[in-house]
Amino acid sequence: MTSPEPVDVVLIGGGIMSATLASLISQLEPDWTIEIFERLGDVAQESSNPWNNAGTGHAALCELNYMPEGKDGSVDPAKAIGINEQFQQSRQFWSHLVETGALPDPSSFINTVPHMTFVTGEHDVTYLKNRYEALKDQPLFGGIEYSDDSRRIAKWAPLLMEGRRSSVPFAATRIEAGTDVDFGALTRQLFAGAIEKGAKLRLNHEVRSLKKQKDGTWRIGYRRTVGRSPGTVDARFVFVGAGGWALKLLQKARIPEVDGYGVFPISGQFLRTDDPEVVAKHQAKVYSQAAVGAPPMSVPHLDTRVVDGKPSLLFGPYAGFSPKFLKNGSILDIVTQVRPKNLFPMLAVAKDNPGLITYLVRELLASRKAKIASLRAFMPTVDGSDWHMITAGQRAQVMKKDAKKGGVLQFGTEVIAAGDGTIAGLLGASPGASTAVPIMLDVLKTCFPRDIDGWEPELRRMIPTYGTTLNDKPELADEVLSRTASILGIAR
Questions:
Q1: What is the pLDDT of residues 287-304, one digit of tens each?
Q2: Is 180 left (phi over 0), alpha (psi -120 to 50) or beta?
Q3: At 441, phi and psi to the nearest 5?
Q4: What residue ranges define each of the domains in the chain, with the CATH number in brackets?
Q5: What are phi and psi of 285, to 5 degrees?
Q6: pTM for the whole structure
Q7: For the residues of 216-280, what is the DSSP string, one character each?
Q8: DSSP 84-143
Q9: pLDDT (tens digit, 9 = 90+) per residue, 181-236?
């Protein structure tokens, strides 16, 4: 069945990105019609599900990959500061929704969990000290602490130091005001708010085709996954927030902007424990350095998670390989993405990243005993019987054309939009969920250039620092951090 009148906005995918965009648009244009298509029976079942990600409120407080070491040993805080600035926009928007009652209980999706970095070996200890020196005077990183004293680190995270030999140098940093975010709970609540304002959610509806009409609208062909009855709907604007499947759908739309793009799927696993005695000894998210050849999203970390109000610990990720672009995808995904214009960039990526292939093979062959041994590097007294393995979400890392190398493997997220702004999609992974608000603001700026200036007063009401930065304004940074922390009920 085809809608007689085009809807204003169709969102494909029931994750945090579509939920954030639905919430923003329903606030900015309450009269616009919005329809959301999700192929599964509920929202937030892929990367936004709390057990499919680490739940770190990514503010670059502990993630070393946002501050790589230069060849001369220097560290540049610019990217880390940029990530933190983005997370502050997300915090402001969530705070606005809490104040207006759209998010009634912030503790259901965000909780204080200190963010730490822990390294061993002389080289990494030196690097971490340099990183600390580069960040300690940055307003958005206020309160960062550094220590190479075992007693002090043991107070921060006892499991890191129990049974650890002192023959190898080690060091840690900590910021007490880190956060754990249940993006599944947040996604559900954002969609609930949008639906209350009139948005329509179609669960068990899989989008099968996207075709541009002569009048500029998009005809979206779908099929019910229950009953398999087909249908179509016309839309003035389409956003594809379908994780790894976003590439496939943008290819179906035949927009030239997606030419040359491919994605490399990486699956993962975490060790998890719910043992109250073990969980009680570790209240932190502790990140370290990635293994040589490992993709940045595979940085090992020992994390406190709070899901449905109950704390657990996760350690990982252990990388694996699946040809699927989603956990509930098709084994043919990696093949069906291939096009004449992205084949060469993908082959170039394969040629230039032998370390990644070696790393993945090593991870695939690793036994449970070997995986417990890697956890033991963080937690020397680990008892393997307390931990069980869970499968994490499927990540799709972006491959794209490069003038010099032919193709590059890109860390992060990227918005692909048609030249006329009628369709856009998101490719990539981390730090996606934590920076969903600024990413969706970029979508609005790119796709609605005639409207964005008129929306600015409302955007500033929802996100007071919209259009500006905080780190170069210490007093404003302190005011905003204190205000959002108070509203969200988290540490400053």
A1: 998 766 566 666 889 999
A2: beta
A3: -65, -40
A4: 7-488 (3.50.50.60)
A5: -110, 115
A6: 0.94
A7: S-EEEEEEETTT--EEEEEEEEEEE--TTHHHHHHHHHT-GGGTT-EEEEEEEEEEEE--HHHHH
A8: HHHHHHHHHHHHHHHHTTSS--GGGTEEE--EEEEEESHHHHHHHHHHHHHHTTSGGGTT
A9: 999 999 999 999 999 999 999 999 999 999 999 999 999 999 999 887 899 999 99
Structure tokens at 306: 């709070």
For 107, residues 6+ apart whose C-beta sits below 8 A from its C-beta are 309, 489
Q: 348 and 402 in contact (C-beta within 8 Å)?
A: yes
Q: Residue 191: CB partners within 8 Å, gap ≥ 6?
A: 14, 19, 22, 36, 43, 199, 201
Residue 330 and residue 343: Cα distance in Å, rounded? 20
SS3 486: helix
| Token pair of 363 as six digits | 């991870």
Considering only CA atoms, which of 447, 325, 320, 294 is closest in space to residue 398? Answer: 325
Q: Residue 207 corresponds to which tokens in the numbers above?
A: 């989008």
Residue 129's pLDDT band (cuts 50, 70, 90): very high
- Residues whose CB falls within 8 Å of the CB of residue 324, separated by 6 or more in sequence, listed in order: 244, 265, 267, 330, 331, 333, 334, 394
3-state secondary structure of 369: helix
Distances from the Cα of 433 to the Cαs of 182, 337, 375, in angstroms? 10, 24, 26
Other residues' Cβ atoms within 10 Å of the Cβ of residue 226 = 9
